Amino acid sequence: MCAQLGGQPIFIMKEGTERTRGKDAMRNNIAAAKVIAEAVRTSLGPRGMDKMLVDQFGDVVITNDGATILKEIDVQHPAAKMMVEVAKTQDSEVGDGTTSSVILAGELLKRAEKLLEQKIHPTVITEGFRKASQKAIEILDSISVKSGIDDQNGLKNAAMTCMSSKIVSESRDMLADLCISAIKAVAEQNEDGNWIADIDKIQIQKKTGEMIDDTKLIKGIILDKEVVSPGMPKSVTNAKVLLLQSALEIEKTEFDSKLQITSPDQIQAFLDEEEKMLRNMADKIKAAGANVVVCQKGIDDMVQHFLTKAGIMAVRRVKKSDLEKLSQATGGQILNGLDDITPENLGNAGLVEERKIMGDSWLFIEECTNPKSVVILIRGGTELVVDEVDRAIHDALCVTRDVIEDQKIVGGGGAPELETAIQLRKYASTLGGREQLAVEIFADSLDIIPKTLSENAGLDQIDILMKLRAAHQKGYTFAGVDLETGDVQNDMMSIGVVEPTVVKVQAIKSATEATSMILRIDDVIAGVKSAGPPGGMPPGGMGGMPGMGGMPGMGGMPPGMM
Question: Of 507, 388, 356, nearest to 445 (Cα)?
């Protein structure tokens, strides 16, 4: 990039730097964002389709989870990357609604483009969008229904609704119960009386084999370990579990030392003393009443021998994180040495058993009373199925947590978006100037959710939208599309289609912020790419996307990826 000064060019930036300004830059960015929204649009709702994503190593992912789709494709265009961030934020904050948030952002940009063509300044549009999103959040709060940890029906319907679009939809009833039980087990009340559920306390273990219906909730923990000695019991009932951070070995001294031995008796005495120390370790464990030992470090062969003779089960080299989860599950304290052992320090479990699953030995510590850490063991016919079940269960756990923590739900099937859009149009009429247009555009953009749900189910979207608007005008707040029958249902909650309010609120927040940021960009300066691996972004940073009709987009994505 250079400027002219008295006929002499002045170079300001490195040669080869490309710059796109004004309308072209905006059009470029909006086009890239719209491509991303179109890519995930067909996967929305119970009738949405899945995507098969193949990476450069030939690994396959089959999913309809918006965040996973966008994470797996190698997006290069900077504006498109911002759309991927929308999905990531939605996923990490509330765990569901990733596809909706990206579709909404794409629609906002598409409609904003028309306002830009009418010479309305981007700042006016973004200010209108900001006011509209604040009003939309107020509207969603006002139409929400109270729910919470005691509302079993609301929790189950929310979990089932979120799984209805997944591969597991046939088993969603059983999986919803499983997710609710898991969240209720780890949920705790804080000082203010509000419920907090930490999903990290729910361990997910995946194993191919059997069917999705064989997925189980284990009130305890699974260790990917086997019992250290074949002579030890493989199953212990009414287990008293000792959780140990230190090694059951004789520690080596930190400094070099020499022993001068003058007779064979001294060697024997030395060995006898070592054995006595190791026996003492086993005796202390036995005296405390422990019959299962879980050790973070090593266990000496001699200690193993004494523990085996005492009929005590032992496991070694267990990860610290697993030890902490075990402490939460069994109620035992993690000890740093054997001198601190008392019967009160030990954890309790109804059953500790080593089982072989698909050729691997795993240790099941289950039937814990009131565990604060649990495991969901996912089963399925193939690895691809197991992975998709994992994603579905993660979403259901997040949704259940959202309802317990936020205590607000709304009907699904596009109902809250449509009701919000209708009330936003009324609000727009109270505003003056050009911001009114931006708020109306925002309201129109919300219609994309019921439209897309209808379109993916093979219904006439215009016909459905007219019927829905008529139902909402009559006062049916939760009138939505029943995709099982293809009809408009006056109350989606009555047929069990329920979503947490916080999912809808977060989708509006993240979509609005990303849209505002993209609209305010009027100058794109793309530096020279250093020679990197092949298949990266073309020079200039924003080449056409192969297989995507030459849209400005994401160089380096294989043709037909979407």
Answer: 507
pLDDT mean over 107-117: 89
- Report strand pairing: 145-146 vs 408-411: antiparallel
User: Going from the N-terminus, what domains does the chain have, and what CATH number goes with each?
Assistant: 11-145+411-526 (1.10.560.10), 150-219+378-406 (3.30.260.10), 226-350 (3.50.7.10)
For residue 230 the two structure tokens come to 């074949």
137 CB contacts (<8 Å, ≥6 apart)?
A: 505, 508, 509
Beta strands in 367-447 (DSSP E): 374-380, 408-411
Which candidate, 289, 288, 318, 316, places its Cα nearest to that of 304? 316
User: Residue 520's CB: how many other CB atoms inside 10 A?
Assistant: 12
**550 to each of 70, 81, 154, 500, 559, how far by Cα in Å?**
19, 18, 46, 39, 11
Q: pTM, whole model, 2 decimals?
A: 0.80
Q: Write the CA distances from 408 to 145, 154, 376, 419, 493, integer angstroms.
A: 6, 10, 26, 16, 13
Amino acid at 265: D
Mean per-residue pLDDT for 322-337?
86
Q: Which residues are catalytic?
A: 65, 98-99, 395
| pLDDT tens-digit readout, 407-452 | 899 988 889 999 999 999 999 888 877 788 889 999 999 999 999 9
Element (H, E) at 353: strand 347-357
Read off the pLDDT of residues 147-198 as tens digits, 9 standing for 90 and up. Answer: 888 888 888 988 988 888 888 888 888 899 999 999 988 888 888 878 888 8
**Could you report how far apart the first and last alpha carbons of the chain are, in Å?**
36
> Shortest CA distance to 480 belongs to which of 420, 424, 425, 428?
420
> Measured between alpha carbons, how far is 511 from 133 in angstroms, rounded to an integer?
9
Alpha carbon 310 to chain centroid, angstroms: 45
CB atoms within 10 A of CB 147: 23
